[in-house]
Amino acid sequence: MDEFKEIQVNSLNELFQHLHKSNINYCILRNYENIPENIGNDIDFLVDEKNLEEMEKIIFFVMKQYGLKLLNKKQRYGYKGLYFIETKTQNIILLDLFTKLSKKWISYADVNYILQNKIEYKNFYVPKKSSILYTVLLKDLLTYDKLRNKNNDLLLDLDEEVKLDFIQTGLKYFDAEILENLFDDLKVNKIRYSKKYLFSKLKTDNNIKNFLEYTSYRIKEILQNLFFNKMYFISIIGPDGVGKSTVTSNLKRDLQDKGLFKKILDIHHRFEFIPNISQIFKRKEIDNKVEEKNIVTNPQSRHTWYRTLIYVCYYSIDFILGYFKVLKYKAQGGMVIADRYYYDFYIQKHYDNLPYRVKNFFYYLIPHPNVLIFLSADPEKVYKRKHELTLEETKEQNSRCMRIIKEHNGFIVDADQDAENVNNQIKSIIYKRMLDA
Q1: How many CB atoms neighbour CB 277 within 10 A?
Q2: Residue pLDDT, tens place only, 179-188
Q3: What angle do CA 268, 269, 273 make, to 5 degrees?
């Protein structure tokens, strides 16, 4: 057993012991068969709302004992998500705590019934099969309008006892006839009711109160993200051919897989609110491609100062409009990852005829990344790998990137490592910033 796996197993076993001693009313909703050795992406706890605060205290106490730090915390109506990280290995444990089973503010499962009828499994509690079947089915139907294939294994051994408990799990929110029909449909794996129909038939007790609570949580979440989320905008720079696009793609995939950020927007150079200049003048398609290359990567020519000024003024409009996307993703708890960004106007030498202070003026008007990363690599290796620049031009761009990093207190990552190490080093920077926030 590797080091982190041992931490995971021991910390979760101790957590279950503390929960048992404290008489916390909880159960693990699904995918519990291989816990604690394998937790998948997360562990979904259903917990009595009256026990939530005490359960959180126990979780924090146990995780701290094993050196696991709180990396991120998400909260919405009836839900809290706690992300704990082991900083040495960068492994993350996500514990999802549900006090309600709802779609937005509309509940669809009787939490009290599920918890009252929970059963012991290993050293923790789980729902009865009928309740698991119901909660998974309703979640899938109300979200995807179908039962997903990955849940088909729940359709085995659907006897009358399971049917009775299935109906009881949802009787608070649906008429018995609908629940009976849903259960019968499961046997033939053909659901007659649509998402729209089920929503219309849900019994929504205290719907106004729930809506106001849900709205309150959403407003709090947006304000929290806007004013206190310090980790939302990353820009990656480096000489042409160093592998920025590959690194950006790998980073986005990893962070999305972990669920740390609700949505991730990756941009290449700019936000593309406005068309290329060439499109405005309706040049041929081939001219568009040449123009695009000149804007981003072509180092061979040095434009006149007035041509560069036109480019910078025009494309700065796009960067300024980028505030809308940056703030949108920040408010949603998302992230923006930019490959190149505005810094290309400093790195590419064909913009050299425009004074530095003019570029700086426009830079002050646009949204700024709060983490800037320079992929530094041996120029000779970059040149051999991709002949996008001459060796001297690669060295020059490296030098310019270093100057930018010093001016903006950025981070340097050795891009001569293999892709996994580069990715891990960047994630380490991100996680540290999140922990320090």
Answers
A1: 16
A2: 999 999 998 8
A3: 90
